[in-house]
Write a structure and sequence with these properties.
This protein has about 260 residues and is of the alpha+beta class. Among the domains are: about 5-75, no CATH class; about 95-160, no CATH class. It is about 30% helix and about 15% strand. The strands form two sheets. Strands 2, 4, 5, 6, 7 and 8 form a six-stranded mixed β-sheet that branches. It starts with 11 loop residues before the first helix and ends in a 7-residue tail after the last strand.
Length: about 260
């Protein structure tokens, strides 16, 4: 049994295998079961066994991602959040200023409003100045960002958290060896897009009832600030989704941001 805080690196077979399908021996080998397993890990395993329909897709890799523990969070509802838009709930919500009514509508070449651009990723960074700014996302129409009514001075926005991008089809091996290289070679490089980061992620946040919800798989692309226009990002996104679809991944979104993000 590995010592606490010193779990072995998973072999690829276990990293991509669903935790619900692990044998007892494999759980022990991975450091997910035994007397010395941290309670945070044990909570994830218990939650998966108790809610296989909801959490059965989690793989061995998901538990090895520092700070993930999505299953534990999903299995324990967060405290009820207040319904008043002027109240900050401890850690789950932020009260943000509305600079002007014009900030609520996209202008010129922008595809998202200034309000959404500045607040879509609220919660990811401790310092507000470090929060990345959204350039474009493919889910603009299907999942509108909540916005205040004109005349509002402050508005309550749910804080986002970045989680591991667990997916039954898009495994770590498929992403690292095939999909990510194809996106770079077939889309980003030919388009002359100066990307700073290309990763997969899932964002979570709390709803009005205080329940943690997990968003779809996101191909998260960071570009060097000021080098990629929203329209350019919009034009490149269908080709990225096409690459994913060719590998059987049909439930992903693409999001572009233009800021340097520290370790999340």
């Amino acid at each position: 049994m590995p010592k606490p805080g010193n779990r072995p690196r998973l072999r690829d077979e276990l990293a991509d295998k669903r935790l619900i399908d692990f044998t007892h021996e494999e759980l022990v080998e991975a450091g997910f079961e035994g007397d010395d397993v941290p309670e945070s890990i044990a909570a994830v395993i218990r939650a998966i066994r108790e809610m296989p329909d909801l959490l059965g897709f989690l793989t061995g890799e998901n538990v090895t991602i520092p700070g993930l523990q999505v299953a534990a969070k999903l299995s324990t509802p967060a405290p009820m959040s207040p319904t008043s838009p002027t109240t900050i709930d401890s850690g789950d919500w932020s009260q943000v200023a509305v600079t002007s009514d014009s900030a609520l509508t996209p202008v010129g070449d922008e595809l998202v409003s200034e309000f959404e651009r500045r607040n879509y990723y609220v919660g990811l960074c401790p310092n507000d100045d470090d929060v990345p700014e959204l350039y474009y996302r493919t889910s603009l129409q299907k999942a509108p960002f909540p916005a205040p009514t004109p005349g509002t001075k402050f508005f309550k926005v749910a804080n986002k958290a970045a989680n591991g991008a667990f997916h039954e089809i898009l495994t770590r091996t498929l992403w690292n060896n095939t999909v990510a290289p194809n996106i770079i070679k077939e889309v980003l490089e030919p388009s002359g897009i100066k990307y700073a980061s290309l990763k997969t992620v899932r964002f979570s946040s709390c709803d009005e009832e205080g329940k943690s919800t997990l968003g779809p798989l996101v191909i998260w692309i960071g570009t060097q600030a000021g080098t990629t226009s929203p329209e350019r990002a919009r034009q490149a996104s269908p080709a990225i989704l096409s690459i994913l679809t060719s590998h059987g991944v049909t439930d992903a979104e693409v999001e572009w941001y233009g800021s340097c993000v520290d370790k999340l």
